[in-house]
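User: I'm curious whether this sequence folds into something compact or stays loose and floppy. Could you predict its structure so I can see for myself?
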Amino acid sequence: MARRSLALLAVSLALLQVASAARSWLTQFTTDGIVRTGYDASGQKVMMLNLDRSSGPAGFNSKEQFLYGEFSIEMKLIPGNSAGTVSCFYLSSGTDDWRDEIDMEFMGNSSGQPVVLNTNVWANGDGKKEHQFDLWFDPSADYHTYTIIWNPENILFKVDNVFIRSFKRYADLPYPSSKPMTLHATLWDGSYWATEKGKVPIDWNNAPFVVSYRSFYANACVSGGACHAGRDGWMHRQLDAAEWGSVRWAERNYMRYNYCQDGYRFPLGLPAECSRS
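Assistant: Here's the prediction. I'll summarize afterward.
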């Protein structure tokens, strides 16, 4: 009887810890649109963004602003025909013409086609710095981890354990370095550009569209406050030779677009960083 009581107590404490962790994650954000919460099969708290014809965009936004850090979240994207939708995980200093922003945007696909991940960096309002990749797995079948590492030296993008991009800072070029940014996750109608350059719009017959998020992690410097104790792991983080190898692998096999190869878009010459190693 005593053993049974102890076992029940241990289970109760474990559930209490899970619930407490879930609440603490959710309380870090405000929400817009239709946002629902629930638990997955493992007992983890999940935040679900919903989009239909009448609801408008949905999202959650951090209450704090950050200046440098490591940010990650697990996402399970829209199954089936998600053409025209855009699911995002990004940092932004605002909506003005001089904003800084770091984007991971998942552009919806027609059934059977790969989902495209658009990575982009905005500095002082200049945002024409996209690298786009076809994802090499089905991002709607299970959760995958997406990570942004932002420090004074570079911005790193990672999918699960694979680094796919490094955006390097140059002293004479704009770089997000002084404007605190809010963390956002959003789902919205991007029919005008998301799928095949806007040729395939949303089919609202497939609504509601749902993207699920869980396991948010941030180790970052809070604007106006202290940096977290683990900052040494990311503050000066740069890629080693093996990690550069994974970037080259992603570029070679899955890159769909590289702004540094788009001479038509830049008739007066490619951006300066394109010619630097």
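Summary: DSSP finds two helices and 14 strands in the chain. Residues 123 and 175 are 5 Å apart (CA to CA).
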